[in-house]
Amino acid sequence: MTQNSYNIPGLELSGFIAKSIYSVRKQLLWFIGISMLIHMIPIISNLQISTDVVEKKRPPTSVKFIQRAPRLQKTLELQKTPKIVERNIQRKMSPQRMSMMPRTMTTASSHGGTALGSLARPGEFVDRTFSPQQQFYGPNISTDVVNTRAGSKSTSGLKDDLIDYSNFKDRFAGWVEQGKNKKDISGYLEFYQLQYRGSKMDENNEPGWNVVPQALPAVVEYAQAKTKLEITLKGAIRLDSKDLMSVPMLYMMGSETEPLYTAQEVKNLEKYLRGGGFLFIDDGYAARWGSFNQKCRKMIEDALGYDAEFERIANNHWIYHCWEDFAGPPPGEDEIRPNPNHPVKERYRYLEGIFLNGRLVVLLSSKGYCKAWGAWPRNPASLGGPQDNTRQLQFAINVVVFACTQKGGIIDQNKQKLAAQQ
């Protein structure tokens, strides 16, 4: 009988897959078993792998000795108020000296140069009594000894005594002090006059910058007579001078001559004015429309630009009261007599100035004070002279005192620097 075999599709593939899975499972089980055996060997054999590797350290080459603080047996008190015991120290005399009775000694006064010798002529004998009770044994500690350790007030007083303006004459061009009484002015000032190039010779064939040579010497003479201020005329200085920045104040006079200047001189003038300087411009021609007056205004405008705003100084400004009291600017050449070159009398009841951050840096006078200082006492009768110029000289001292004591000025800056160094 013949048997027929039938092949089922996919049966062989399923058997192959089944064998493969079985084989993989078998191998995986063997792998897991071998791994577990390997990992269990150190545990079973009690092996310590970490002890096999021993780090060998080099012995130290030197031994450092560290001293430890001793242990305190008692509690340490960090703050302890010292106990002050007041003691009266008295000098005790030995019983033997106290028991000594007064005695009289007879000595010769021939020893020259002593107090004893002054009691009699040489060769004579002088009696002197020795009394232990009246003998001086030293100071009484409780009353006679004075503490020499002064406090802060004494130190500041000593510092003030040591500061004297005469000590700074070789360092600064001026040092002015004003006491509680405003009339108490002391110090020194090196007075400089601004020298400039003029367009022509001025009156009496004088250069424009020094048209009235007697003006400043008259101011200095009056200051020496009425104040303790030592003013020294140092002569002329130009705007291109290297010493310009150390000058506390500049005086500039003129009349008919028009001042000429360069661009560099204008820059130096700006640096001077903004750095604490003070410029007093005095128009001897006494005319705001004059060439000198107008050119000076132009020079200031070129130096300060938009800050060159001339303002009328109020009559209650401190410049009119810092030394002598004035109700406004005193009369000048504009009020005493008309200028022969312009017979129309123009009176200016004010002075003009430029302020930078509240500090007066330029004072412009159209009143001709230079002629009042130097020419009025010498004017002939035909010109109305001689005239009294006392008030004009007093106002000159006012300008000097104001310029030298003004906050922010060169002298004030020097004082601030010295105070910072103390």
List keywords for this structure.
422 residues; alpha/beta; two-stranded antiparallel sheet; 10 helices; 12 strands
Q: How does this model look, in words?
A:
The chain contains 10 helices and 12 strands. Helix 4 packs across helix 9 (390-405). The chain is elongated and about 155 Å long. The chain is α/β, with parallel strands linked by helices and 422 residues long. The strands form 3 sheets. Strands 3, 4, 6, 7, 9, 10, 11 and 12 form an 8-stranded mixed sheet that branches. Strands 1-2 form a two-stranded antiparallel ribbon. The chain has a two-stranded antiparallel ribbon with strand order 5-8. The model is unreliable at 94-119, 128-132 and 134-162 (pLDDT under 50). The chain has a domain at 178-421: Domain of unknown function DUF4159 (Rossmann fold), CATH 3.40.50.12140.
Alpha-carbon Rg, integer: 52 Å
CATH class of the domain at 178-421: Alpha Beta
- Please name the CATH topology of the domain at 178-421: Rossmann fold
CATH superfamily of the domain at 178-421: Domain of unknown function DUF4159
Q: What order do the helices and strands follow? A: HHEEHEEEHEEEHEHEHEEHHH
Structural class computed from helices and strand pairing: alpha/beta
Q: Point out poorly predicted stretches.
A: 94-119, 128-132, 134-162
Short structural summary:
The protein is an alpha/beta fold. It has helices at residues 11-44, 95-98, 152-162, 215-226, 263-274, 291-304, 333-336, 369-374, 390-405, 410-421; strands at 103-108, 125-130, 174-178, 185-194, 197-198, 228-237, 250-254, 259-260, 279-283, 311-312, 352-356, 359-365.
